[in-house]
Specification:
The complex is a heterodimer of chains A (about 220) and B (about 300).
Chain A lengths: L1 H9 L4 H4 L3 H13 L9 H4 L19 H13 L7 H6 L3 H13 L17 H7 L11 H4 L18 H13 L9 H6 L4 H12 L11
Chain B lengths: L6 H5 L46 H14 L1 H4 L15 H4 L7 H4 L5 E3 L4 E3 L1 H10 L12 H13 L26 H11 L1 H4 L6 E3 L2 E4 L17 H11 L10 H12 L13 H8 L10 E2 L2 E2 L7
Antiparallel strand pairs in B: 1-2, 3-4, 5-6
Helix pairs in contact in B: 2-7, 6-7, 8-11, 10-11
The chains are: A mainly alpha (about 220), B mainly alpha (about 300).
Chain lengths: ~220, ~300
């Protein structure tokens, strides 16, 4: 427990912001490790004990993501604007308070150390070009223009892409194309993803999956 | 809101003003019908060469330097930048995008006579104006490597384009006069709905690791009162074609004018030509309904408490 606290503090989490929700975080921790006994399984069985996700299975990292973003996603699963066979029943089994608590809990977990990619991604490949320059001839801005340099994420509305499993990133782009995910503000992602081909998706997903995370810190 | 826009002025066509030129400027006579937005028609008539075609060697190196100055101006020309912006923030895709005042549409239009300073301006002098007003900084000397690199980059991008011809996709496509005079309160609602997500509820943009990802629209780190973007017609034109990012063309004309008015009714850094008297500065440089400088909006006299 103490060690974890130290990690949080060292990781740049504001102590002041952590105090008032301490009581609530106990419940969220139990939710993460045991589930709520009302249909929500333990989150960590898929998202990992440290919230780091699971690369091989394509389960996303939750640790260090913005609390507002996470809470919105859980609400969107529950409401159906983000359709997913696994997460929808889980989000619906959570009360509104539990969603908030889980979001707050994961937002404060330090970003886990990511293993270095076996092979660094080319800086001039198709994935890098889409990520850093976009393809304006098809009105696709650079991903970095909204998701931040290297995909580290920006504020509550623009989630990090860096280090997320490539399979997860690709699945989201396809979900927007197909309209099963339609919870994006101003339909920003729905619009630009329609201009992407299968090879674009593959390349850009791999590129972001290989980007380094700002270690031990929640997204800046 | 006491600013009324006359149809006559709205119809006035101004080709270019990174600097704070007024609509009664040199190009007022260029009242040729605006070519329809190139994007709406599909491909623009002129396409700049692919970036991969920048040659190796010393010439190509300067082209690349110009591109990097254009994209990361604060980083690569810090001595001449006085705010949080980069050239690319208003000229998208490294100055290549049609309807975003692309460099390939500008280069072949200079040298050009400008009434404002009463002489023929070289392309380099035009670029200097961008630094003084849009970038709220200082003009690099004409033989400075910053100007030379930006000229070289523009020249490279314009290769094959005709000289002295206004190309489809050049400039920002003019937005027809609105049915109702632009209104602050309506603009505020558009801002909250379509802009605050990125530029922040306070218009101050959003940073990551000390650098803007979303640039500020007003306040000390934005363009100053001398910049073209502070004029309602230019702001409406830029916004309608290019904002929200990736959703250009989404706003209707009225929304574009209203939100432009809301944005340009906020304080920003002083016009560097300010001579100590707001009304006199307005008269000398901003004597147009397109400028709110020196006007009272919502009880605030704009330009009287410039942001620092």
């Amino acid at each position: 427990m103490r060690g974890k606290w130290m990690a949080w503090v060292a990781g740049g989490t504001l102590l002041a912001a952590t105090w008032p929700v301490l009581a609530g975080s106990t419940g969220a921790r139990a939710l993460a490790s045991e589930g709520n006994g009302r249909g929500a399984p333990p989150c960590q069985s898929c998202h990992g004990a440290d919230g780091g996700g699971q690369e091989a299975a394509g389960f996303p990292r939750l640790a260090g993501l913005d609390a507002g973003y996470l809470a919105k996603q859980l609400a969107d699963y529950a409401a159906g604007t983000r359709a997913n066979a696994v997460m929808q029943p889980i989000a619906r089994a959570l009360s509104a308070d539990e969603r908030q608590a889980a979001a707050a809990y994961y937002s404060r977990l330090p970003v886990p150390m990511a293993p270095l990619p076996a092979r660094p991604e080319a800086t001039d490949g198709a994935g890098a070009t889409l990520a850093t320059r976009g393809r304006w001839s098809d009105r696709v801005p650079a991903c970095e223009q909204c998701h931040g340099p290297g995909g580290v994420g920006v504020g509550a509305h623009f989630p990090p892409l860096a280090g997320q499993p490539a399979a997860y990133i690709a699945a989201q782009l396809k979900a927007w194309q197909q309209g099963t995910r339609r919870n994006d503000p101003l339909e920003l992602m729905q619009h630009l993803s329609r201009a992407l081909g299968a090879e674009d998706i593959e390349a850009v997903s791999r590129w972001f999956a290989a980007q380094p995370l700002p270690n031990g810190r929640s997204t800046p | 809101m006491n600013v009324r826009l006359s149809a006559v002025v709205l119809a006035t066509f101004v080709l270019a003003a990174c600097t704070g030129r007024t609509p009664i400027d040199a190009h007022a006579t260029d009242a040729a019908p605006t070519p329809p937005a190139a994007a709406a028609q599909g491909t623009p008539a002129f396409a700049p060469p692919a970036e991969a075609a920048i040659p190796a060697g010393p010439y190509g190196d300067v082209v690349r330097l110009g591109r990097e100055i254009f994209r990361h101006t604060r980083q690569n020309a810090p001595a001449y930048v006085g705010n949080g912006l980069n050239c690319v923030n208003c000229h998208l895709d490294a100055g290549r995008l049609a309807d975003s005042s692309p460099l390939w549409g500008a280069y072949g239009m200079y040298p050009q006579y400008r009434k404002k300073n009463g002489h023929v301006n070289s392309y380099g002098e035009r670029l200097q104006g961008c630094f003084m007003y849009s970038m709220n900084g200082k003009a690099p000397p004409l033989d400075d490597k910053v100007i030379v690199a930006l000229e070289t980059y523009s020249y490279w991008m314009a290769q094959g384009a005709p000289l002295g011809v206004k190309l489809p996709g050049a400039g920002y496509p003019k937005v027809p006069a609105p049915a109702k005079a632009p209104d602050y309160a309506r603009g505020q609602a558009v801002f909250a709905r379509d802009c605050a997500l990125c530029h922040g509820a306070d218009g101050q943009g959003q940073k990551v690791a000390g650098d803007y990802v979303f640039p500020p629209l007003w306040g000390p780190d934005s363009f100053n009162w001398g910049a073209g973007m502070h004029e309602l017609d230019k702001a409406a034109a830029f916004i309608k074609a290019n904002m929200p990012l990736g959703r250009g063309g989404m706003l209707n004309d009225q929304d574009a004018w209203d939100v432009a008015m809301f944005m340009d009714a906020h304080e920003r850094p002083q016009d560097p030509r300010y001579g100590g008297d707001l009304a006199a500065t307005r008269k000398a440089y901003h004597d147009t309904p397109m400028s709110l400088y020196g006007r009272r909006v919502n009880g605030r006299l704009l330009g009287s408490e410039p942001a620092r």
